[in-house]
Amino acid sequence: MKRAILAILVFISLAACGQHKINIALKKQLDSVIVLDQKYRDTLSLLMDPKKSDSVAKNLSLTAQQATGHYWALQNRLDSLDLIFVEGVIKKYGYPGKTLVDSPANEAAWYVIQHTGKIHQYIDVIKKAADNNELPFHLYAMMLDRDLMDEGKEQVYGTQAAYRTLKNGHTEWFVWPIKDASTVNERRKKAGFDLTVEQNATRFDITYKVVELNEIKKIK
Q: Over the stretch 48-77, which tens digit does the pLDDT of each residue have?
């Protein structure tokens, strides 16, 4: 009798393990997608920095504007191919989360969608994955903010920044308007962010200040 019970328990244990088996082949593919997603973005970030853009472009024998256009063309092509792949994966498996492909491969589809114009289409898929612990919740929070900003609405977690052109022709970066800005750091902490909205802004050389949505509409 004891042997029979033990056999049943072993069978149940093996069955449970089988249900959570990592898809190694898909994991490797998504690991590669993460690499491709970032392939030219580091260079593009340097080209966006006025203090570094000229030196980067000079090494390529191009102007900063030419170099930026060149690398965006290359990255956009990779982004398009990555999106086709990721959409196929989501259609077949749902969001490829931690249970299916482990970490950090579970973030690959998020990166691809975040860098496309299809955020609004997939935001509910991302939320479900985050709610089920298949994806870090702070990544959903970032995508939600991006979606809201794209819709011309106030963001929730203060993760997104934009820029405006001043009368002197210079550009000024600012943190996009936040709903209930006075309590944003409480929401950020709950979502898993380590930095306050003020600290996060300084990472991008932005001095945080509260901006209202109606101010942005006046600029536009």
A: 887 788 888 888 888 999 999 999 999 999
Tell whether the torsion through CA atoms of 76, 92, 26 and 101 is positive or negative.
positive
DSSP string, the chain: -HHHHHHHHHHHHHHHHHHT---HHHHHHHHHHHHHHTTTHHHHHHHHSTTTHHHHHHHTTS-HHHHHHHHHHHHHHHHHHHHHHHHHHHHHHSS--HHHH-TTGGGHHHHHHHTSS-HHHHHHHHHHHHHTTSS-HHHHHHHHHHHHHHTT--BSS---EEEEE-TTS-EEEEEPPBTTGGGHHHHHHHHT-SS-HHHHHHTTT-------HHHHHHH-
Residue whose structure tokens are 């970066």: 173
Whether residue 193 contacts residue 141, with contact meaning beta carbons closer than 8 Å, is answered with yes
pTM of the complete model: 0.84
| Below-70 pLDDT ranges, the chain | 1-19, 166-169, 217-220
Report the percentage of the chain scoring pLDDT > 70.
Answer: 88
Contact 198, 192 (CB under 8 A): no
Beta bridge partners of 155: 178
